[in-house]
Amino acid sequence: MKPKKKWVPLILAGAVLLSGNAVSQLYSPQTAYAEVQQPAPDTPLNKNKLQQPMAVQSVEKLDNGVKLDLGGEEAYIRLLTSDMAKVSILNKGEEEFVSPGIAKKDWPAPKFKVKEDDKRIVITTDSLTVDIKKSPFGIKYLDKNGNVINEDDIKGSGYEDGKPYVFKKTDKTENFYGFGEQTGGLNKRGYDIGMWNTDAYSYTKSTKYVYATIPFFIGLKGEKAYGLFFDNTYRSHFNMAKESDDYYYYYADGGKLTYYFINGPEIKDVVDRYTDLTGKINLPPEWSLGFQQSKWGYWQDDMVRVAKTFREKQIPADAMYADIDYMNDYRVFTWGPKYPDPDKLKADMDNLNFKYVTINDPGVKVDEGFDTYQEGTKNNFWVKNADGSPYVGYVWPGDSVFPNFLKTDVRDWWAKKHKALFDKGVAGIWNDMNEPAVFGGPGWSMPLDTVYEADDGSKKQNKEIHNIFGHLENEAAYEGFKVNKPNIRPFVLTRAAYAGTQRYAAIWTGDNTSNWDHLRMTIPMNSNLGLSGAAFVGNDIGGFAKPTSQDIPSPELFARWIEVGAFVPFSRDHYSWDKEQEPWAFGKEVEDISRKYISLRYELLPYLYNQFKHAQESGQPVQQPLVYHFQHDPNTYNNDDQYMFGDSLMIAPIVNQGATSRSVYLPAGVKWVDYWTGEEFEGGQTITKQADLGTLPIYVKQDSIIPRREVQQYTGEKKLTNLILDTYLSGQASYSFYEDDANTEDYTRGEFNVTDFRVEQKGNHIEFEQDKKTQNYASDIQSYTLKLHDAKEPNKVQAADNKYGKASSLDELNQQESGYYFDAAAKVLYVKIPANESHKVKID
């Protein structure tokens, strides 16, 4: 069947009205975003037409909870664990809903008891009580001590004209975090939040709809945390006590009422359990943690030239990116005239020790001579109009069709198609435009009534599938590595996402703008994404979109941004105008600043890699808001311009134009050390830090060990033979160091090492010991350098009867198998310890 066009009028800047093929005559990459479209107006919840209060007619005990007869509806309250419950309210006979965001579906039933009287049904585990009021129906959650964690408001839950909704009680002390990718500040109390994946080019701090939908949040009340995941793929809405201090509510434009409740009481517990449910990240290849460079406009020669310049200027970097220019007239999985010799590009990148990543868009050009279009058409793989014809929308290739990623065989086909890229040396896949964006479409996307066919033959409309389109495409790209590059760790970067996308892809926050507002916004955006399971997150350093007030970012803005960008999980400079925005483009001072902080990132790669291991094990964010670590300190609840980079380093960036100092809050309960000066501070106070253009305020949590290494120009340039244990000690510090080959999937089969380090002040001496807990990987580490800050010159250093000799310089010590050197001016003691040292090392 020949594709049938379905156009919606498009208004471009200058009020030129276009439709149909007229769009293709005037559209170009330069004008396409002249007017960014937002979704159609919200459909408000009509509170005057809420469902009449339901009442429990009867109860049936299940192996993991209860089934309730509510008259016209029925409810399932299932206990997945002793601290997590799933609630479903359905029309009778309907099946419970499980979205593609859910990773774990089979949960062994926990031990629980059910008690019933004429007013209540009470389900109890060893850590959670679910108290169900029979009439009117409502749910209250209590901890094991009987404290109310969360409860339904008097308006309860139900459906309003097909829209599932839930009202919850709150009070003035409760704060809210998470919600995935959102603009504005960290604490979302008082926000009206919307979720509908939108190509929000050059969004602002008040933009409601951006690129990703993660309908999960964390409530923090009385210093105790809970999580709530509203698993609904339709457009959803969250009014977080904006309307009233007494309640908040959430609803969706359609679908079933399904949510998961997670009891903390620690934020860490909530994130861990939520990522058990939706999936934890897989360990990425180490190169993807290095610095990366991109531009919308690089041609093949540009990529090679820029890569060479990084090497010549000794600025570490690991990857270059090819934007849509590399394709043949934007046909996916092809190479075009701007990249005339991809085999040579592969050779050049290999010679320069650079990886390269190519963009991928889901729109497939309508072209009878294009193999991808031919194959998809032959196999009936496209999203359809309501009348059954393939939907055609206009994106970069012009008239385009879109794969129906809801079907497994379509995802499998798409995965295999990546061979055309991998065969030319592509190391990573960058999924863009996958909201999906459609130029001129309603809300800049497909019509709501376009149709997807599921594996079982059922038909689903776009209003249900839109928010998971990118998620499903990311799954296909991830599987593309498994099919075409078995045992090599995938690296997929995505713009659009749903809950659970973290198990397939890293997320970047889309087309930001080169201005100070956007630099400030990166911190709460990344922090809330991290709290929502997306540990691998970052932003376009320097800003992607050209600001209206200036031609390019100023040297000051870029310098401050590169300082922050070196300390986020995904670190990439990406821009879209002719003027250069590489680290050397702003003069020697900014080039030196860029080199300093990118080099520092590379020194810290062992620490950063281990933080990703923590994320893979527990869901812990790599970039964490202070409240994640210090939820019992109320001064952290609204702090959205500082963050923890891993467990030990606190970053307090300068994010205001012209500023050379800032106030820094030091969370209570620990001591802090100024990374640059060594000055120590008690927690629980605000200090002022002077910070010239080249200074990023960094503070180290006392009693920390930070593993680091020598600087490399790219990951894998040098074997890690000496691991530096950068130690800030007042009493006792420990670290469990994880190591594997950082590139393959062998770690999933047990090929890794875990070594526990412990450094302790005991009276007048310090002891160092290691415990090689797991040793299944052939490590290159031959020695450790214990670097002790604020130290005194020792009288002796020895392990059992082996006395360590004193070196006259750090260079001399580095040439020895063991020994020590004391830097009196810096008050730093370096102790070189063989990796096979089996005895405690005592420093007297």
From TrEMBL:
One of its GO terms (molecular function) is carbohydrate binding. The keyword Signal applies. The keyword DNA repair does not apply. Residues 722-790 form the DUF5110 domain. Residues 77-238 form the Glycoside hydrolase family 31 N-terminal domain. GO terms for biological process: carbohydrate metabolic process. Residues 283-610 form the Glycoside hydrolase family 31 TIM barrel domain. Residues 619-706 form the Glycosyl hydrolase family 31 C-terminal domain. Residues 1-24 form the signal peptide. Keywords: Glycosidase, Hydrolase, Signal. PROSITE patterns: GLYCOSYL_HYDROL_F31_1. Pfam families: DUF5110, Gal_mutarotas_2, Glyco_hydro_31_2nd, Glyco_hydro_31_3rd. Belongs to the glycosyl hydrolase 31 family. PANTHER family: ALPHA-GLUCOSIDASE (PTHR22762:SF166). This is DUF4968 domain-containing protein. It comes from Paenibacillus rhizophilus.
